[in-house]
Amino acid sequence: MNTDHIDWNNLSFGYQRTDYNVRCRYRNGVWGEIEVYSEETIPLHMAATCLHYGQEAFEGLKAFRCPDGKIRIFRPEANAERLQATCRGIMMPELPTETFLEMTARAVRLNERFVPPYESGASLYIRPLLIGTSAQVGVHPADEYLFLIFVTPVGPYFKGGFATTDYVITRAYDRSAPLGTGRYKVGGNYAASLRANHEAHEAGYSCEFYLDAREKKYIDECGAANFFGIKNNTYVTPKSSSILPSITNRSLQQLALDMGLAVECRPIPEEELATFDEAGACGTAAVISPIRRIDDPETGHSYIFSQNGEPGPVSRKLYTKLRNIQYGIEPDAHGWVTVLD
Ligand SMILES: *Cc1c(COP(=O)(O)O)cnc(C)c1O
After folding, report:
1. DSSP code per residue over 94-141
2. Reduced DSSP (H G I as helix, E B as strand, rest coil) percent helix, strand, coil of the chain, to 5
């Protein structure tokens, strides 16, 4: 089998069919055997709880073809643990970490021919999904669940190189409530953000920017990514009960400490944006998406983090460091990377 049909250098962040996906079902209180499928569809009861009551969780991580020819997966244990936290949050059975890791490695190995070449800058996106499948019309957790992992090759986030973009503060919509599901990786949070995202795009911005839902006073998230700011040799990132705990953010905090920066995780009032030398959004898709400007249409204020559109030096250094660890170019001092052999 070949992959001649794939133009590795021009992949988007879309879905492309691969050979196999792996599945595991939860029935009668236990997780079953891991099964390999080539079908892309799932048979699903029309009364499944995932469809009606949002019992759905997902994860996102990446595998990289490295200069040494090996394939590396970045921090899959952290994704397994975050999925378990989501499961507790929306009353789904927790998938054991070892099952998650075994299925992740199998999904990548079975689709090895779809792991893009190093030179393309593309990678293999891994999408785990967990859904409540049993039929129910009352609002209760399901008795049965399906966990699956599919993979799809995706292009580099920055086609023209590491670059800044503009964000707009939204007050018209919240993606999550202070004690809601914002801290869990569930589809409902994304449904809640689609309109705000659409309106931000229509207005010419790359993404919407959220303040805390209760007071509209503190920084929450940059669309579906975490926020960080840099000033006084310090990496500052918001603390909030409605933010999704980003594994990229956690990794960048560690790298910032390693580089001798201080790290602060605390509420960040909107006005403090004016004091940062650099700011960025972070997540698996881009690692860091540096921010040029954040506009607040209500106050008419523009917070500017880059005069010439270039990313700042600290953001660039953090970005390069994390990418080099993912690609096995620099030592993996914190044991983050799983090397497939
Ligand atoms: C997935 C996600 C992130 C980024 O998390 P990573 O683990 O770094 O990929 C940030 N915010 C939201 C809302 C997310 O869903």
Report:
1. PPPHHHHHHHHHHHHHHTGGGS--GGG--EEEEEEEEEE-SB-SSSS-
2. 25, 30, 45
pTM for the model stands at 0.97
- Return all residues near 297 (Cβ < 8 A) that are at least 6 apart: 168, 169
Q: What is the pLDDT along the chain (341 residues), one digit of tens a residue?
A: 578 788 999 998 889 999 999 999 999 999 999 999 999 999 999 999 999 999 999 999 999 999 999 999 999 999 999 999 999 999 999 999 999 999 999 999 999 999 999 999 999 999 999 999 999 999 999 999 999 999 999 998 877 778 999 999 999 999 999 999 999 999 999 999 999 999 999 999 999 999 999 999 999 999 999 999 999 999 999 999 999 999 999 999 999 999 999 999 999 999 999 999 999 999 999 999 999 999 999 999 999 999 899 999 999 999 999 999 999 999 999 999 999 98
Centre of ligand 1 from the C-alpha of residue 249, in Å:
9
CB 246 near ligand 1, within 6 Å: yes
User: Of 150, 142, 23, 135, which is closest to residue 87 (Cα–Cα)?
Assistant: 142
Distance, CA 3 to ligand 1 centroid (Å)? 30
Q: How far is CA 299 from CA 228, 268, 271, 296, in A?
A: 22, 18, 11, 6
Is the separation of the CB atoms in 220 and 276 below 8 Å?
no
Output the residue whose Cα is nearest ligand 1's atom 14: 224
CB 248 less than 6 A from any atom of ligand 1: yes
Strand, helix or coil at 87?
Answer: helix
Query: Does 59 sit in the ligand 1 pocket, CB within 6 Å?
Result: no
Are 106 and 278 spatial neighbours (Cβ–Cβ below 8 Å)? no
DSSP 15: -
Ligand 1 contact via 48 beta carbon (within 6 Å)? no
CA 19 to centroid of ligand 1, rounded, Å: 27
Q: Does the beta carbon of 86 lie inside 6 Å of ligand 1?
A: no
